[in-house]
Design brief:
By secondary structure, this protein is mainly β. It has six helices and 40 strands. The strands form five sheets. It has a 22-stranded antiparallel β-barrel. Strands 9-15-16-13-14 form a five-stranded mixed β-sheet. A hairpin with a 2-residue loop joins strand 13 (about 170-175) and strand 14.
Length: about 750
C-alpha cells in the first residue's frame, strides 16, 4: 500500500511542479565595457521587471513562454527595446548600452502594442507627473496644459478641462486605471475629478482614437497611468508636501507599497486645500477656493501565465464657482454657488498568457455623485424664512452617475504581425435627486467591436484597423409639458463604422516619418440632446436638441522627427474635418437675467500643428534649450470661427543640469521659461478677442541629504513678473476676471 501511495504521488508531481522559465543577463557600457548597476530591465506586456545588481547582472523569474518586448533603460543612456523569445527553461540576453543625453524613451501604454514612443505608429506625447510638478503645476489639468497641442478650459485654478488641438469636453476621452472616466464630462463647472497623487505619467493621443476607444475619443485621449507596484521583494514609501504662495494652498500625499514574488499591494492618500487666487493686480477672485481629498489603493497577484490587479480610487472635491469679484479674504470653505463631487473608481484587469497569444479582460465601475448648491431666491410675498430653515435646504442640483464598463482584448501573435481583437462597452445610468433637473434621468448603453493589426518590417511599421459601435440613450420625461423647463422623453440610437491606418518609417538613422489617417465619431451627449437649465460658472441657460446627429470626422496627421546626440527637431501637422459638429449658439433671448443658448450642428474643420526642437550640445551635455510652437485654427462651414480655440503659443526653456553622474536616479536642475501667447482674433460670435501676453517662469530642484535621508525638492515660480492677463480659454473672461498672478510652488519629497 505504501508503494502504491508513493507511485501515485510521483505520478501527480508533474501537475504541481513545472520548470520555471527565467531570463538573465548582463548590462554594460558599450564604450568602456564596465557593468552598469540599477539598470531597468522590463517586459511591458507582463508588467514585470527588475534592476541590475552591482555587477550589472539581472534575473527575471517565472516567465511564460512566448514572444515579448524587452525594454532596457537607464538615465544617461539610450533606451533599447527588442522582441525576445522566451523558451522553456533558462534564457539569456546581454546588452551593452550606448550613452545618450536624450531623456529616457518610455513605453506607450495607451495603445495596445507596447512600443516605445519613437517606435509607436501613432504620435503619443508622454510626460511624467514629476516633470509636470517641476513646472509648478497646481492641478493635473494645469500640468497637462504645458504639453504642446494641449490646453485647458479653466474656471479659476481648481477647475479645468483638457483641450486637445481645439477639441474639449466630451470630444476628449479620459482613461484612468485602464478604464474610461465617466463623471459628467459635459459640465464645465468641475474639473477632471482625478488627483495627480498616485499617477505616474500622462499620455496624450492627439486626434481621433475612436478605433481604440469608441465614442467620445473623436478629439483625442488623455490616458493616466497609475503608479506601478513595487519590484518583487521590495517595500518602499514616501511623503510629498506642497505649498503654493498665491492661494496659500497646501497639500500632502503619502504612499506605501510592498511586493512579494506573487502578491503586491500599494496605497496612497492625499489632501489639498486652497484659498481664493489673486490676479496680477492683487485682486482676490471670490469663491475660486477649492479643497480635495483622494485615496488610491491596489492589490495584484501574478504567476507565470496569469496576473490580475484590482485598484480603487476615491476622490472628494469641494469647488467654489467664481462669478464675480466680491469678498476679499483667505477663507477656504466655498461660498455659494459651489459643488461637492464624490467619485468612486473600481477597476479590475486580468491577463492570461499563452505561448502564441494572450487575453486581457478589464472591467470598471464608476460612481459619480455631483451636488451643486446655489443661493435660493424666494418670492417676496410676506413669507419669511428662518435662518435654520434656509440652512436645511439641500442641493439645487443632485445627480448620480453610475457606469459599468468592460474591455476584452485577444492578442494572437503571427510572426511579425500583432493583432488585437476586442469587444468594449458600457452601461450607464444617470439619476436626479435635486430640486432642479439640468439633464434627465437616463440610461446609456455602448457596444463596440474592433480589430487592429501592427506589422513590423525591418525599418518601418504599418498599423491598421476597423471598428463598429452602437450607442443607445433612453431618457425619462421631466417636468410638466408646456413649462419652459420641460424635458420630453428620449429614445435615440447611434451607430458608426470607423477605420484607421498609420505608417512610420526610419528614413535614415536620424530621421523618423509618421503618417496617420483615421476617422472618429461622437454620439451627442445627454446634455446636448436634453439639457434645459442654467449652467453656473457659464452664467447661461443651455437648451438641448433631440434632433442632433452623431459627429463624424476624418483627420490626417503628418510627423517628421530628426534626432542625434545633440539636437532633436520635430514637426507635426494635422487637418481635421468634422461633419455635423455640435456647437452652442445664442438666441438673443433671456430666461430671467441669463442668456439662452441652443445646440445646433454644422460641418467644421480644424487644422494646425506643433513644431519644436531640443538642443543639448556636446560637450555641454548639462545645457538644454527647448523651444516649441503650437497653433490651431477652427471654423464652421459658414466661415464663422469655432469657440474655445486656444491662441497660438510659443514656449522657450533654458535648462541646466548638474551632478549628472551616469545612472544616478536624480539630477539637480534649474530652468527659465518664457511662454508667449499670441492675439486670438478668430473668435465665435459670442466671444471677444483676446490680447497677447507673455509669462516668465523659473525654478530649480534636486535632491539633498538630511539626517542620512534623501529629500527631493522643487521650487518653481510661475508668472514671476505678476502679469495681469486673461486667457482666451478662461470661462471667467466674459466677466473680465483675470487669471492667476505670481505663484511660487514648493515641493518636498521624502522617501521612507
Amino acid at each position: 500500500m505504501k508503494q502504491f501511495y508513493i507511485s501515485m504521488l510521483l505520478a501527480l508531481t508533474p501537475l504541481f511542479i513545472h520548470a520555471q522559465n527565467t531570463l538573465s543577463g548582463n548590462i554594460s557600457d558599450s564604450e568602456n565595457n564596465q557593468s552598469l548597476e540599477q539598470v531597468s530591465v522590463y517586459i511591458p506586456q507582463l508588467e514585470k521587471g527588475t534592476v541590475t545588481d552591482a555587477n550589472g547582472n539581472y534575473l527575471l523569474k517565472d516567465l511564460p513562454e512566448g514572444t515579448y518586448k524587452l525594454v532596457i533603460s537607464y538615465l544617461g543612456y539610450e533606451t533599447y527595446s527588442i522582441s525576445l523569445d522566451i523558451n522553456s527553461g533558462t534564457n539569456t540576453f546581454d546588452y551593452a548600452m550606448g550613452p545618450s543625453a536624450i531623456e529616457i524613451d518610455e513605453v506607450v501604454l495607451s495603445t495596445p502594442f507596447h512600443k516605445l514612443q519613437r517606435e509607436n505608429v501613432m504620435k503619443v506625447e508622454q510626460k511624467s507627473i514629476a516633470e509636470l510638478k517641476s513646472n509648478g503645476a497646481m492641478t493635473l489639468a494645469d500640468g497637462i496644459s504645458n504639453i504642446a497641442g494641449v490646453s485647458s478650459v479653466s474656471t479659476g485654478v481648481g477647475i479645468g478641462k483638457p483641450v486637445i488641438r481645439g477639441l474639449s469636453f466630451n470630444r476628449v476621452l479620459v482613461y484612468t486605471q485602464g478604464v474610461r472616466l465617466e463623471n459628467q464630462q459635459f459640465g464645465g463647472e468641475h474639473g477632471l475629478g482625478i488627483n495627480d497623487a498616485g499617477i505616474s505619467s500622462v499620455e496624450v493621443i492627439k486626434g481621433p482614437a475612436s478605433l481604440l476607444y469608441g465614442s467620445d475619443a473623436l478629439g483625442g485621449v488623455l490616458y493616466l497611468n497609475p503608479e506601478s507596484f513595487e519590484l518583487p521583494g521590495e517595500t518602499s514609501g514616501d511623503v510629498n508636501l506642497n505649498y503654493f504662495t498665491n492661494t496659500l494652498g497646501y497639500g500632502a500625499n503619502a504612499g506605501v507599497k510592498t511586493s512579494g514574488e506573487k502578491l503586491k499591494f500599494l496605497a496612497r492618500g492625499a489632501y489639498a486645500s486652497n484659498a481664493d487666487y489673486e490676479t496680477g493686480d492683487g485682486t482676490g477672485v471670490t469663491n475660486s477656493r477649492f479643497n480635495e481629498a483622494d485615496l488610491k489603493t491596489g492589490v495584484a497577484y501574478q504567476v507565470s501565465k496569469f496576473k490580475t490587479e484590482l485598484r480603487y480610487n476615491y476622490n472628494f472635491s469641494k469647488l467654489g464657482i467664481p462669478e464675480e469679484i466680491g469678498v476679499q479674504d483667505n477663507q477656504r470653505e466655498p461660498l455659494l454657488p459651489n459643488q461637492e463631487i464624490a467619485t468612486h473608481i473600481l477597476s479590475s484587469k486580468t491577463n492570461f498568457f499563452f505561448k502564441k497569444s494572450s487575453l486581457e479582460a478589464t472591467f470598471g465601475y464608476i460612481f459619480n455623485d455631483r451636488k451643486e448648491f446655489e443661493e435660493h431666491h424666494h418670492e417676496e410675498e410676506g413669507e419669511e424664512h428662518e435662518e435654520e430653515e434656509l440652512e436645511e435646504e439641500g442641493p439645487s442640483l443632485d445627480m448620480n452617475l453610475s457606469t459599468f464598463s468592460y474591455n476584452l482584448q485577444y492578442n494572437p501573435q503571427w510572426g511579425s504581425i500583432t493583432t488585437i481583437f476586442g469587444i468594449q462597452g458600457m452601461h450607464q445610468k444617470n439619476e436626479n435627486f435635486g430640486e432642479e433637473v439640468l439633464i434627465p434621468s437616463a440610461i446609456t448603453n455602448d457596444f463596440g467591436i474592433l480589430a487592429t493589426s501592427h506589422i513590423h518590417f525591418n525599418k518601418s511599421d504599418l498599423q491598421f484597423g476597423l471598428r463598429y459601435d452602437l450607442r443607445s440613450i433612453n431618457g425619462e420625461e421631466s417636468g410638466i409639458e408646456g413649462d419652459e423647463e420641460y424635458i420630453p422623453s428620449l429614445d435615440k440610437n447611434f451607430n458608426s463604422f470607423n477605420a484607421a491606418v498609420g505608417y512610420r518609417a526610419d528614413l535614415t538613422d536620424n530621421i523618423l516619418f509618421r503618417l496617420n489617417l483615421a476617422t472618429g465619431f461622437r454620439a451627442p451627449n445627454l446634455s446636448e440632446l436634453t439639457s434645459n437649465g442654467l449652467h453656473s460658472g457659464a452664467n447661461r441657460v443651455e437648451i438641448g436638441n433631440q434632433e442632433l446627429d452623431s459627429e463624424q470626422n476624418v483627420q490626417v496627421d503628418f510627423a517628421m522627427e530628426y534626432g542625434n546626440q545633440h539636437i532633436e527637431v520635430y514637426a507635426n501637422a494635422f487637418y481635421n474635418t468634422i461633419s455635423d459638429y455640435i456647437y452652442l449658439q445664442p438666441t438673443g433671448a433671456f430666461r430671467e437675467r441669463d442668456p439662452i443658448y441652443l445646440f445646433e450642428q454644422q460641418d467644421a474643420k480644424l487644422y494646425g500643428g506643433e513644431f519644436g526642437f531640443h538642443l543639448h550640445p556636446h560637450p555641454l551635455d548639462w545645457l538644454h534649450f527647448e523651444s516649441n510652437f503650437d497653433m490651431v485654427f477652427g471654423e464652421l462651414e459658414d466661415k464663422t470661427d469655432l469657440p474655445l480655440i486656444p491662441a497660438n503659443r510659443w514656449n522657450n526653456t533654458l535648462r541646466v543640469e548638474w551632478n549628472t553622474t551616469k545612472g544616478t536616479k536624480s539630477k539637480s536642475y534649474a530652468f527659465a521659461t518664457i511662454q508667449s501667447y499670441f492675439d486670438q482674433n478668430r473668435v465665435a460670435a459670442f466671444e471677444t478677442p483676446t490680447s497677447s501676453y507673455s509669462l516668465f517662469n523659473m525654478g530649480f530642484g534636486g535632491e539633498i541629504k538630511i539626517f542620512e535621508q534623501n529629500v527631493g525638492y522643487k521650487i518653481s515660480g510661475n508668472n514671476i513678473f505678476d502679469k495681469t492677463y486673461i486667457s482666451h480659454l478662461s470661462r471667467l473672461k466674459p466677466d473680465g476676471i483675470a487669471n492667476i498672478g505670481r505663484n511660487i510652488a514648493f515641493n518636498l519629497s521624502i522617501g521612507l
